[in-house]
């Protein structure tokens, strides 16, 4: 995500477009690549339903952070707001869950980039093990993050542009290939979809995560709730639309039973991309898909690790000198790199656990923040609609996600296999 400048004046004219893109750019990332695999049981209709429900709840939990944030001066971080409104214990839980999500996502990106690099080089007839690919990629990203925030923001902006461009080209092409009989799964006799829908929720939740950026938007636009509200609405809507198209093109090309094999192979990006391209028989789309997946992963990788880097630098009080930044880069990258070397194929698991931890700081804590903000300040500048009912609804959604993921981890939910 590009670095944000502080708001220069109250009537600042930062465009709506920029803020919406920051939100959409953060949302659309690795999570998206887990969706077709984990949603193959629930298939198209129920997946879209789960995505819409998650979109609604994640948009409102983001708005609740905004509601609480507006009581503080622009630049106040998530940490400041939570400590002040909910107290020390919640702040520790919040901080731990943020660090956990960022760490596990960094691991997911290393795993994903390894598999993407292996697949890309295989197309060029070069054999390169995924483990090594992930390792090298992580070192490059670590170097860029160590260099400066500016380097990250410039590169992330370029990658975001490339990601959107290749997305449009790729999916424009894929759209024409959708086969209705595959999308509607007409060949399977008596299929069951509904039992598989619950387990998809934590993955949808992870895929709609962006909440660390709400305070950044306030820093960017100043106290301008109507504008920030629109950014959240448009940014999340762009992501929702894109995910629905993504479901349609993957499920409209890969027959449902084929997903069982993809999942058995670990469900990593390369397997999905490979299956898609073997079915399409179009070298151009194949190439675009590869370029797109590389950019999508690289862009979110930079954004998320920059967040983790700043968070850890602040936590351990490492300074901004070359040496201090080296220490921060080491604590940021070393644990996920080691995990990626030992266990390179845990992509899908990682996204599921990201969903479990994200439900704390991106759903439950925001709902509690909005409640506390109303009690303490009366939320004079902006209040999310729906009163306490909305707060309760969001809390229920958050708890449901946690319960689902815990049940799924103990194999208590049906799995499509
Ligand atoms: N939504 C991001 C992951 C993410 C989760 C939580 C916060 C920020 C980012 C993705 O799909 O990759």
TrEMBL record:
Keyword Membrane: yes
UniProt KW keywords: Amino-acid transport, Cell inner membrane, Cell membrane, Membrane, Transmembrane, Transmembrane helix, Transport
Membrane-spanning segments: 16-37, 43-68, 89-110, 130-148, 155-178, 193-210, 231-249, 287-312, 324-343, 349-370, 382-408
A Gene Ontology BP annotation from the UniProt entry: amino acid transmembrane transport
Topology of the protein relative to the lipid bilayer: Multi-pass membrane protein
Subcellular location field: Cell inner membrane
Sequence similarity: Belongs to the amino acid/polyamine transporter 2 family. Mtr/TnaB/TyrP permease subfamily.
NCBIfam families on file: araaP (TIGR00837), PRK10483.1 (NF007789)
Identification of the protein by name: Aromatic amino acid permease
């Amino acid at each position: 995500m590009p670095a944000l400048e502080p708001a220069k004046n109250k009537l600042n004219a930062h465009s709506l477009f920029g803020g919406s893109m920051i939100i959409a750019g953060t949302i659309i990332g690795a999570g998206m690549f887990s969706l077709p695999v984990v949603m193959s049981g629930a298939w198209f209709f129920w997946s879209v339903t789960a995505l819409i429900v998650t979109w609604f709840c994640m948009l409102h939990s983001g708005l609740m952070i905004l509601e609480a944030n507006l009581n503080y001066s622009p630049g106040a971080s998530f940490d400041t707001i939570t400590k002040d409104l909910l107290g020390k214990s919640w702040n520790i839980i919040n901080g731990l869950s943020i660090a956990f999500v960022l760490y596990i996502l960094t691991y997911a990106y290393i795993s994903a980039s390894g598999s993407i690099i292996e697949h890309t080089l295989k197309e060029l007839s070069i054999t390169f093990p995924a483990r090594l690919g992930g390792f090298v990629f992580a070192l490059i990203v670590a170097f860029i993050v160590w260099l400066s925030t500016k380097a990250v923001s410039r590169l992330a902006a370029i990658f975001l542009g490339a990601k959107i461009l290749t997305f449009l080209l790729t999916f424009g092409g894929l759209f024409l290939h959708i086969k209705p009989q595959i999308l509607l799964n007409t060949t399977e006799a008596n299929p069951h979809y509904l039992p598989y829908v619950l387990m998809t929720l934590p993955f949808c939740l992870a895929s709609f995560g962006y909440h660390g950026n709400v305070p950044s938007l306030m820093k960017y636009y100043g106290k301008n709730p109507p504008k920030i509200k629109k950014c959240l609405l448009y940014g999340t809507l762009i992501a929702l639309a894109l995910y629905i198209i993504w479901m349609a093109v993957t499920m409209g090309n890969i027959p449902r039973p084929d997903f069982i094999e993809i999942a058995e192979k670990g469900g990593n990006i390369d397997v999905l991309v490979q299956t898609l391209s073997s079915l399409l028989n179009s070298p151009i789309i194949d190439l675009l898909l590869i370029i797109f997946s590389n950019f999508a992963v690289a862009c979110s990788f930079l954004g998320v690790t920059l967040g983790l880097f700043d968070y850890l630098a602040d936590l351990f009080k490492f300074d901004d000198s070359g040496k201090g930044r080296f220490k921060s880069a080491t604590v940021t990258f070393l644990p996920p790199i080691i995990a990626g070397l030992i266990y390179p194929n845990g992509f899908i698991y990682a996204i599921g656990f990201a969903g479990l931890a994200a439900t704390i700081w991106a759903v439950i804590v925001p709902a509690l923040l909005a409640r506390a903000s109303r009690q303490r300040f009366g939320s004079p500048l902006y209040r999310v609609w729906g009163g306490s009912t909305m707060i309760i609804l969001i809390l229920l959604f958050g708890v449901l996600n946690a319960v689902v993921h815990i049940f799924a981890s103990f194999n208590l939910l049906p799995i499509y296999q």
